Amino acid sequence: MYDKEITNTKLTQKNFLKNSTIKLDTSGIAMPPSFFTGLRYIINLILSPMLILVIVLTGCQSNKYQSRIFLDPQVPACQTAYYNVKLNPDKPVFDSFWVDSLGNGRSWENALSPWIMPNHNYKVQIADQWVRYQNIDDPKTSTSFHFEPNRIRIRSESSGLNDAEPFTLLFRTSGYKPARATMLGHMLNERMMLPAIIHIPGQGTLRITAKASNKKDLSVVYGGTSMIFPAADKNCLWVEVDMEVITSYPKTAGIKNDTRFDGYRRNWLNILQINPKHQTLANNSNSDVCGFIYYQYGEIAMLTPQLAEGVSGPQVLRDSLDKFLAGKQSYGTPGYPNSGYLEPSLDTYPSLLTTAHQYYLGSKDKAWVIRNIDKLIQWAQYIVDGDKNGNGLIEYHRSGNLGECGAGPWGPRCRPANWWDCINFGYEDAYSNAIAYRALRGIAKMTQIADRPQEAKHFEEAAKRLKASYYSTFYNPKTAMLAGWKSRDGQLHDYGFVFIQGMAITYGLVDDMEKARALMNATLKKMKEVGFNRFDLGLPGNLVNIPAEDYYEESPRWGGSNAFQKYENGGASANHVYFTLAALYKVGLKEQADEILFPILNSFNNGGFMGSREGSELTYDWLFWDGSPGGYEGLLVDNYLTVKAVLIRQGLVDPQWGSWGKSH
Fold it and tell me: 601-659: per-residue pLDDT in tens?
């Protein structure tokens, strides 16, 4: 059975029959005054070729929301508390579709782009609660739809002479409130094996199962934005696909019926998107694969249990990790197209190694750890070898000196050390070292599991050395904050990096609560000084302008040339905000954390941080401080780690490890 914490919307036909009715909705039709005249009017209407009926079918009414099945052959449609669909009058295609996993009947923008099918003609029939599209040239070949309160059944049939046309979803990826959907499950070549999950950010989740007359395994041709479902053909006389709306978030104590958390509930899975070209997790289903951000995917995946048979957060994580263990490259490493890295970014292997430990924590798969321990040790040793000067911190091959990575006359363009790839992070980088500390602690645990005690001790000692140097190296007494990096010339580069303070505290590098609280109070104070309070936009990465000499991009569009409040130079987003919130909750500043968390959750719930403004190529994954868009991805999944802060707030997760605490 599926995990009870994930699937609380298993609605059955039997449950709904108790309160079901069949009724003719004649609203909007002028009824004649005479009974017999009225009866004749209705009979004529029914017999008319221009049939217009609105019927609430048996089994499609709940106590809270009534489902409406519009049986108009001209425009067949269905609206329930969990989804809304409008069928094409001529072909078995959804003209519009949206989902509400919470079952609140929330109206939303159409999730789909137009889909043009091959030129077959169909006759539409409605009988026994099925809407059937019958091929006029081959009446025994058809596609039919059956609508239930939280599920849609799609049945294709073949006469044995012709193939049925496959049902296809083409999701809309641009404009206002787009539907940057993904499939999650096992990929084999270009196909997503069934069962699988479709998740639509901002809307919810569909569990996809299927069965066929020949009992063979079925799959979806997954193209990122397009999903072509299996259909009957000459060798398989029928295929039935079941699309069930489910919830997909961990249930937590103390928030039931509190609508402030709806953004958490609808968007828990947003950070997990598989790019079918790479068959791995990526920025979104049509974007780059970035190994240096996998540790954030792991934070969500490790707590996401079974969503369908054989499909879970850890499984999705493992499938991607296995490709990296087999040698896959990503943005941030040499060999990935157009990445420009001479050596791996300083955070890539710390991220991947952390992800491996997160997989173990979520799955308890000791066999996988033992099977891959040699490669994991190789990654870990690469990290340890990055400590070139013996002080415990790892160093990037670029100096990080002012001007080295800047555009224009200050120096050659070169890739910085970490995720923040427009900022001149280099040499001893506080961001990468924070992830490296988490990674080294994780590999120490995994080598113990694999019965490699010498390696376990080696990596545990490396983690201790790193921690011993971290605070003293990066603390800037002038600002009372941790700097972003210390360059080879000994200078601190401190631009009020909000996320650095949060990561150091969350991962336990700063575990003295007095020091930790002081760092967070200094951050909040600086935020107030610079006048940032639009928490519905997320947080700026830095609170002080980064001069052009310390910035990779020259164009003001990307925050270069001292264009503060744009993109990575102080632009707002929800990227890395999880760490700020986790740190605030950890040091006891709950009220201040809530002031940030709830506006972001509300933005998530209303489709914020994705899509674009009409007539503009700029997207909402990054924002200027006035709320106007400044991004380019359309959906950058990194924004959505923020939802995990809810679990920190409720005291259910240990922030150092990201795993369930003892109270869970």
Answer: 999 999 999 999 888 889 999 999 999 999 999 999 999 999 999 999 999 999 999 99
CA of 261: how far to CAs of 99, 104, 453, in Å?
Answer: 18, 14, 44
Q: What is the DSSP string of 11-58?
A: --HHHHHTT---EE--TTS---SSHHHHHHHHHHHHHSSS----EE-T
Compute the distance between CA of residue 628 and CA of residue 139 in angstroms, rounded to an integer: 53
Q: Could you say which DSSP state residue 461 is in?
A: H
Which element (helix H / strand E) includes 357? helix 348-363
Kindly give the pairing relationship between strand 204-212 and strand 280-281. Answer: unpaired
Query: 57-79: b or e for each residue (b if 16 or more CB lie within 10 Å)?
Result: bebbbbeebbbbbbbbbeebbbb
Sign of the CA dihedral with 552 first, then 558, 559, and 562 last:
positive
Identify the residue whose tokens are 């029959």: 17
pTM confidence score: 0.90
Could you tell me if 542 and 496 are in contact, meaning their C-beta atoms sit under 8 angstroms apart?
Answer: yes
Region 277-301 average pLDDT: 97
CA distance 387 to 380: 12
- Residue 234: CB atoms within 10 A of its CB come to 13
The DSSP line for 522-539 is HHHHHHHHHT---GGG-E
Q: Where are the beta strands (DSSP E) in 108-190?
A: 122-127, 130-135, 142-148, 151-157, 168-170, 182-184, 187-188
Q: How confident is the model at residue 663 (pLDDT cuts 50, 70, 90)?
A: very low
Tokens found for residue 333? 């490493």
